[in-house]
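The instructor's notes for this session suggest beginning with a concrete chain rather than abstract definitions. Hand out the sequence below and ask the class to guess, before any prediction is shown, which regions might be ordered.
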Amino acid sequence: KNNDFQYKKILNFKTNFDYNRIQTLYSNLSSFDLFQLIELRKNYIKMNYSLVEVNLHLIKLLSYPIFLLLMTIFSALLMFRVKRLDNTTIKISLGLFFSVIIYYINNFFFVMGSTEKITAMPAIFIPLLLLTLVNSFMFQNINEK
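After discussion, reveal the predicted structure:
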């Protein structure tokens, strides 16, 4: 007041925003389940925040069973393809190497989607499509033998 200031320990003011709701908006989205993400999406709409991260996590959560199925098929096909290798350690190392490659491809497209370089749907489904193509190529080669 009047170009003078005072330090207050507690400052009370009336606002239209709920403090607890705002505090929950900055949580780790990967720890939420489907219903919490839908509720968070509604809160983001009310607060006029960007929905990109929430939409990405929703799509990723819904496509996760497909990803697990494709990874299981990939690991089975990988084990069928490397019959010549007798050493189990080399097989495990090869599987770990490919798992890390797939993780980084997945993470790369997720970051591209979260920075809005590409939209949310391709950011989640391009890695799944790539994994499907690799699986079908490996499956075709197994049938030829």
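Then share the key points. The chain is about 70% helix and 0% strand. The CA atoms of residues 28 and 54 lie 11 Å apart.
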